[in-house]
Amino acid sequence: MRALWTPRHKYETWLRVELLACDAMAAEGLIPRAAVDVIRARARIDFDRIEELERTTQHDVLAFVSAVAETVGPEGRYLHEGMTSSDVLDTALAVVLKEATAILREDLGRLHGVLRDLAHRHRESVMIGRSHGVHGEPITFGIKMAIWYEEVGRHRRRLDQAEEEVGVGKLSGSMGTFAHLPPSIEARVCADLGLRPDPISNQIVQRDRHAAYMAALGLIAASLDKFAVEIRHLQRTEVLEVEELFAAGQKGSSSMPHKRNPVGSENVSGLARVVKANVQAAFDNVALWHERDISHSSVERIILPDTTVLLDYMLQRFTTLLERLQIYPDRMRKNLDQTGGLVFSQRVLLELVQRGMGRDEAYAVVQEIAMRAWKGEGRFVDLLRNDPTVSSKLDAGVLAACFDPAYYLKHTGELYRRVFGSAAS
Length: 425
Hints:
This protein is mostly helical. Helices cover 63% and strands 5% of the residues. It has helices at residues 7-27, 33-42, 47-57, 60-72, 85-121, 141-166, 183-193, 208-234, 263-284, 295-323, 329-336, 345-354, 359-374, 380-385, 388-391, 396-401, 412-420, and strands at residues 126-131, 134-140, 168-169, 196-197, 242-243, 326-327.
């Protein structure tokens, strides 16, 4: 990913646009074919010369075109004919963003596959579901992974849509009116580059496209943050249902030898903040003066390379973390039982309602007994069994069935069919 944003690749992509424009102009008789043959044979990128010229011109594209023209000779005068700087910049940027997207697409595909495997492997690994950080009702670790799998699938579709948004080129000239080159030149160049011509532009491709692209990347980062936060919570000492791999020789603290910290997840969470902040900068780039200014340019030179490189790294690091994640189903079951069955309170409530008790009355009865269990006055199931109101409605067998985790998982198969289709089994 980093190689896509080097000066070498930038200038090579600029030159590719310029040469294709020359080819298109020659094909339509606007410049001599023989001149284009010379340009293609002689054009070279001289980095030192570009830097030297830019120190004087204070204009990167102008310095680039002049330096390349010098390597060509007299025929170099046909380079950049009828074009403006943004014709090169924005079209080349679209090419690079499509190349970056291909890498991110591969990264997301790998993460998607790891989540699919975890979802199937732990389909029956029962654990407590939590809301507000407090025990709720039983779920499985596989269901948690299936939710993440579905989320990553949405990101894969969004990334395709974002590439479609940003994958346009323009060779429409200084104000976008095609005053000096016909639209057919733009169409030929874009086709050769695998881009679509922007239907209409001014001096630039409009920056809502790039903001949409950045928003898609920001959403991926937000989900990675969410996943990483979950792992950090599940690795807390008092929870310890999963744990990042702690490699031989690894140290968790300079002062506390016992520490095993979720540093990979914390790293992902931290980097997500940078990516999400960059999205706001992309939004601010949408509003430019009239047909353009260049306030967006300096911003994009930072946020586009940084965001694609960071997200590539985050995806690879987090996927590797998941591949090596230590998962403890026995601890999950122990935590599920930690409250002595309080997590089955809704099951008891509904059984009482089914047997004729009003919902508000049933809720008050079950809650009062649950609060006594919270205070340590006894096990929830025992307090229920000894309560005359409850025992008059629920016999021992029915009450025992209320505490079976399998009840909560009876529709897991349907959930998996919705998410994984024919591969659910």
